[in-house]
Amino acid sequence: MSAAPARVAVLISGRGSNMQSLVARQGDAYRIVLVASDKPEAAGLAWARDQGLTTFALSPRGIGKPAYEAAIDAALRDAGAEWIALAGYMRLLSDEFVAQWRGRIVNIHPSLLPRYKGLDTHARAIAAGDASAGCSVHLVTEELDGGEVLGQAEVPILPDDTADTLAARVLAEEHRLYPAVLAEVVRR
Ligand code: GAR
User: Fold this and answer.
1) Which of 107, 108, 145 maximizes ligand 1 atoms within 8 Å of its Cβ, making it the mutation to test the pocket?
2) Which pLDDT belongs to residue 82?
3) Distance 87 CA to ligand 1 centre (A)
4) Which domain CATH number covers 41?
5) For residue range 139-177, what is the model confidence (pLDDT) as tens digits?
6) Dihedrals φ, ψ of 86, to 5°?
7) 82 belongs to a structural domain
8) Confidence class for position 188, pLDDT limits 50, 70, 90
9) Domain with 56 in it
10) How many domains does one find in the chain?
11) 161 dihedral zone (left: phi>0; alpha: psi -120 to 50; beta)
């Protein structure tokens, strides 16, 4: 008998296209049980609501990080989440939060880690004259974009590429990579 699908919560801050690809590919390996955001106005949250998914939104503004993270943690536990998938979640999680979910938080990052941790990854890859760029799915640890890399996809950097054209090509790879890697990691 195969195990029940892993219960996954997705944290987003914006458009949520990676979250949508995770939802589209849910199945025997994992189910999306919650979509949560630090931005109540996030476009991805409206999409998730329209799909009938359970959503949770709270801005940390005015309440502080500990209270904000405690509320997120409570929403995750209420939803019975076993894993957290960060998908364009643009806020640093505290060490305490990461410790509580250690080994159970994954993230997608738009570079070939360990290159280009942090922001502006595509512009930095082009400026460096790199021949290729890509995306990585990794475990989240206390070190920014520093946890074990679980999977990567690579795309060539073309002579005419701008940060935007490169981002669009990498994003298409993100949408393929993230569901596949998530389906694998929840089984280990
Ligand atoms: C994606 O490209 C993701 O890799 C990136 O933000 C975008 C979110 O798009 N994440 C980071 O830069 C994390 N540091 P989406 O909201 O459409 O999934």
Assistant:
1) 108
2) 98
3) 6
4) 3.40.50.170
5) 999 999 999 999 999 999 999 999 999 999 999 999 999
6) -80, 130
7) yes
8) confident
9) 6-109+136-153+178-185
10) 1
11) beta
